[in-house]
Amino acid sequence: MLSDLKQAAGRAERPRELWDEVGAALVVSTQQRFEDEEDPQGSPWPQSLRARFFGGRTLTDTANLVQSITHEASDDGVAVGTNVLYAAIHQTGGRIEAKKARALRFRLPGGNGFVTVKAVTMPQRAFLGLDEAAGKEIAAIAGAYLGAEEGGNAGR
Q1: For residue 42, what is the enclosing H or E element?
Q2: Is 94 helix (H, G, I), strand (E, B) or coil?
Q3: Strand partners, 71
Q4: What 3-state DSSP class applies to 72?
Q5: What is d(CA 148, CA 156) in angstroms, rounded to the nearest whole number?
Q6: Rounded CA gap, 87 and 81, in Å?
Q7: Three-state SS for 5?
Q8: Which of 73, 98, 91 is nearest to 22 (CA)?
Q9: CA distances from 34 to 14, 58, 61, 117 (A)
Q10: Distance between CA 113 and CA 39 in Å, rounded?
């Protein structure tokens, strides 16, 4: 699949168009993960406390994160991601510690007051990455570009 993609990009007159189409497919794939609440390997995300106790979906309370997923294509490739600051801690998981104050203070879901802690550990809830369905979609996109070139319509 990747060799077809590299070959298609290398042979296309305007590879940015190819990368843009690949990026659009990856955005859709990433947004589907929020619907499925699973990582690129198909493993379920750990459920958030808010979703567990009050319903709704993990990572989708305001939908700000899923709506921020975008792509940027160039002749050299494509980047897919978000500019939402808290995205990284969900993608990789990790420990959040108080740095400027003695503790972290959080409002509990459902208006149940506040909690004060020195640190919290966020579970990994990866949403960026290549899953099998996206891989097949990208292979089809690359194949279409290669087929267009062979048919005399290079670079679309």
Answers
A1: none
A2: strand
A3: 80
A4: strand
A5: 7
A6: 9
A7: helix
A8: 73
A9: 32, 8, 11, 29
A10: 31
Check if the beta carbon of residue 142 is closer than 8 Å to that of residue 38: no
The tokens for 38 are: 């699973």
Amino acid, res. 32: Q
pTM of structure: 0.83
Classify 31 in phi/psi space as left (phi over 0), alpha (psi -120 to 50) or beta.
Answer: alpha
Tens place of pLDDT for every residue, the chain, 156 residues? 566 666 667 766 778 989 999 999 999 999 999 999 999 999 999 999 889 888 899 999 899 999 999 999 999 899 999 999 999 999 999 999 999 999 999 887 777 889 999 999 999 999 999 999 999 999 999 888 877 655 545 444
Tokens of 43: 């493993």
Tokens of 69: 């997923």
Furthest-apart CA atoms within the chain: distance in Å: 67
Give the Cα separation of 38 and 132 in Å (integer): 13
The owner of tokens 């108080």 is 98
Q: Are 108 and 114 in contact (CB under 8 A)?
A: yes
45 burial class (0-12, 13-18, 19+ CB within 10 angstroms)?
buried
Beta-carbon contacts of 24 under 8 Å, excluding residues fewer than 6 positions away, are 71
